[in-house]
Amino acid sequence: MNHKQKHLGIQNDSSFSRNALGTKIHALTNQDGLPIRFELTPGQAHDAPPCKRLLDALQPGVSVLADKAYDADWIREVIWEQGAIDVIPSKANRKLPKEFNAEIYKERNKIERFFGRLKASFRRIATRYEKTSQNFLAMIKLASVRLWVEFYESAA
Fold it and tell me: Tens digit of pLDDT per residue, the chain (156 long)?
């Protein structure tokens, strides 16, 4: 596909838990499913608030792919203000559903595969051995560096 895309994705999994409520990892990935930015929030927090920081400094013309949890007018405005294109399906309860490119949206599986690789390859992250969010985020970043290195080693 010749579209240069950045993907916004979310994963909330009970395996990311040190307590009953868990932790959500919010990630922005590039078109290859490699991570660019992360945010951690408590498991009971809504998905949308970290978007402001994750979507800072988008390149004009890129497509931002996200799931229905990110279907909010203010998120779309943040994307449009930077000249990017939103590819976000509407929630079922939206009165006037927004259009989105379903063909490009199929590429969102790359963010899900990123989270799958993160959990499958790094047991420490999947079971959340780290007690503090700061250490947990550090382990996520180290695992991400390894994913970047593996990607470029296989491409060479």
Answer: 444 444 544 443 434 445 546 788 888 999 899 999 988 888 777 777 888 888 988 889 899 998 888 888 999 999 999 999 999 999 889 888 898 888 999 988 998 899 999 888 888 888 888 888 889 999 999 999 999 999 988 776
pTM: 0.80
Spell out the residues 6+ positions from residue 82 whose beta carbon is closer than 8 angstroms to its own. Answer: 55, 57, 58, 59, 60
Q: In terms of CATH architecture, what is 5-155?
A: 2-Layer Sandwich (3.30)
Residue 69, both tokens? 């949890």
The amino acid sitting at 73 is D
